[in-house]
Write a structure and sequence with these properties.
Keywords: Cell outer membrane, Coiled coil, Membrane, Signal, Transmembrane, Transmembrane beta strand, Transport. The chain has 445 residues and is an alpha+beta fold. The protein has eight helices and eight strands; from the N terminus they run H-E-H-H-E-E-E-E-H-H-E-H-E-E-H-H. The chain is elongated and about 150 Å long.
């Protein structure tokens, strides 16, 4: 009863696990990555954070209002020396204390930038910074799409290799059973049985290695998309549909997201230069304050003149003008550095354009070569299957040796794996073509 309960429990757990398997199309994997991978999430947060950066710069153009207050106790008042004539004592020096023991004040201050070129330039730069992070988010998603797509097809390739290994193992086991029967009837040699047994053992070992490899590739894919490693997945049967088409068109790499990001960086650097140049401009601001002060020999809060504490208010309104004349060439040095930064980003843009064209041409060559290779490997696979079928038939009828049969099986396995590799090669080149056209996001549709 105990063993029956354990077996039933294991079967129940297996069924639950099988039901929890998530079928994952390429579109599903990409969408999951966009929504769950930390890189994509952080890029979205950067865009959101840029709103607050704009607000931070905008604050410099808005009024600044502050409240301040203080309470001071002077146990020893500072004395000043005054001529005795002030007090009817000519020729004498009289030490007179100034101030009161207690001093309390509350002040409200207001300031407003009327003209500050650095602030105005900063506002424009802040808006461009937001656009920069939006482009960066798009680039992050495209990079994620490229990485996930490549990993996804790698999983499929290893799954196909595993299926090929399982099929070959099943086929070789059938041959082993035939030889085993022939050996028992004295129609086959023991060496033939031993050789086929070794082949079966090797195929079983290879199958186990592929099972492990599939698991590793699946784990890699789940990591790339931000999925829990323990989540079981499976890929649809039609994952690697290949419509091998020769690609001859050219593309304009200036529309690529990488180029847009570099150009936006160039814009930001130009604003930085303008911000440095703005240090040459004068600044004008309006300032005002209003305060209330209490002085006396007693603690001033809640005290009245009858308590020896006197309260009075005060205020001021003024303009503050600052005209920069000379700062030791500091501003000039900053402007020169900004010019060099602009020259460097211009070189980066030119180099990126060359690199993107280089990648596109390589991808175009690769996909065209893959078309040829795919067709060749498909024909080889069909031919190897025909050879194996004929060899198996000849072997059963005693017209072929075991060596010929094993060679035919090896040839079929090799051709099947070569065809799968050719499919992967084509798909990876296809991803690069789509990337070169700036259309990676279309894989989400």
């Amino acid at each position: 009863m105990k063993n029956s309960f354990i077996i039933a429990f294991m079967l129940f757990a297996f069924v639950l696990k099988a039901q929890d398997v998530k079928e994952l199309t390429l579109k599903d994997a990409l969408q999951y990555a966009i929504e769950n991978k930390s890189d994509a999430k952080k890029a979205k947060l950067e865009v959101e954070n840029s709103k607050y950066k704009i607000a931070e710069v905008r604050a410099m153009a808005l009024p600044q209002i502050n409240l301040s207050g203080g309470l001071t106790y002077n146990p020893i008042l500072q004395e000043s020396a005054l001529p005795g004539e002030f007090f009817g004592q000519p020729g004498q020096v009289i030490l007179v204390p100034f101030g009161q023991e207690w001093n309390s004040n509350a002040v409200a201050s207001f300031s407003q930038n009327l003209f500050n070129q650095q602030v105005f330039t900063g506002l424009k730069a802040a808006k461009s910074t937001r656009e920069f992070y939006q482009i960066n988010q798009l680039l992050t998603e495209e990079q994620l799409i490229e990485k996930v797509s490549s990993s996804y097809y790698q999983v499929y390739v290893y799954q196909q290799k595993l299926k090929i290994a399982e099929s070959n193992l099943e086929s070789t086991n059938k041959v082993k059973n035939i030889i085993d029967g022939q050996f028992k009837n004295g129609l086959a040699r023991k060496i033939d049985l031993d050789r086929i047994s070794v082949k079966v053992s090797n195929l079983e070992a290879a199958k186990q290695q592929l099972i492990n490899a599939v698991q590793l590739q699946e784990n890699t894919l789940k990591f790339f998309i931000g999925m829990a490693i323990e989540q079981a997945i499976k890929l649809p049967e039609n994952t690697m549909e290949v419509t091998a088409v020769v690609f001859e068109k050219n593309t304009d790499v200036s529309n690529r997201t990488e180029m847009a990001l570099l150009k936006k960086q160039e814009t930001l650097l130009s604003y930085q230069k303008k911000a440095f140049q703005a240090e040459y401009y004068p600044t004008l601001s309006l300032n005002a304050n209003y305060g209330y002060q209490g002085l006396g020999k007693e603690f001033p809060w809640l005290a009245k003149p009858s308590d020896g504490v006197y309260w009075s208010d005060f205020s001021s309104i003024g303009l503050s003008l600052r005209i920069p004349l000379f700062n030791g060439f500091s501003t000039s040095s900053k402007v020169h550095q900004a010019n060099i930064s602009l020259e460097k980003i211009a070189e980066d843009i030119n180099d990126a354009k060359l690199a993107l064209n280089y990648q596109f041409e390589n991808a175009k060559t690769q996909i065209n070569n893959s078309v040829i290779n795919l067709s060749t490997q498909e024909q080889n696979m069909k031919l190897a299957k025909e050879v194996l079928d004929n060899t198996q038939n000849n072997y059963v009828n005693g017209l072929a040796s075991l060596t010929e049969l094993l060679d035919a099986e090896n040839a079929l396995t090799e051709s099947q794996n070569n065809y799968t590799a050719a499919q992967l090669e084509y798909k990876l080149a296809e991803i690069q073509i789509i990337k070169s056209k700036g259309e990676l996001k279309t894989l989400l549709n």
